[in-house]
Amino acid sequence: xxxxxxLTRPQGRTALLVAALGGHLEVARALLERGxxxxxxxxxxxxxxxxxxxxxxxxxxxKTALMYAAQYGHVSLVRLLVEHGAALEATNMYGWTAAHxxxxxxxxxxxxxxxxxxxxxxxxxxxxCTPLASAAKYGYxxxxxxxxxxxxxxxxxxxxxxxxxxxxxxxxxxELVALLS
Length: 181
Fold this sequence. Notes:
The chain has ten helices and two strands; from the N terminus they run H-H-E-E-H-H-H-H-H-H-H-H. The protein is mainly alpha-helical.
């Protein structure tokens, strides 16, 4: 089998990142068993005039395999990556963690796995949003309830001065506004 660390796509995605993006659990498992790191980063180096890209931690834009799996709701893949040491607090170029991605896209079961695995529920991204604010922005009531039950703070305001309740109000989710106020 080829080296599990070699990139397979010209966009700078490793085989593990592609597997995470597509939810290919068994492919990801095989790659991890053959030495692919759950903490993936593109690193470009020149070898005899050609570009050889190898993985170490994050993809182009800074997304990790865990972030892709979280964003697309691949619960079993999220569990597998966490079991193989994926960093819960790794951030992309915008300061987003996997928990921000899962909450933003309303992936309740992924949020649950990440919280149960010890992610920081009050982590701030580069815009000053917590996972709670990310879920509130699009009215994901169940994600917000879960995060609140695990200690999420309602009070932080993002760089625009908006709280999670303000973001819920902007999306027209009265139930969530009441929960967050």
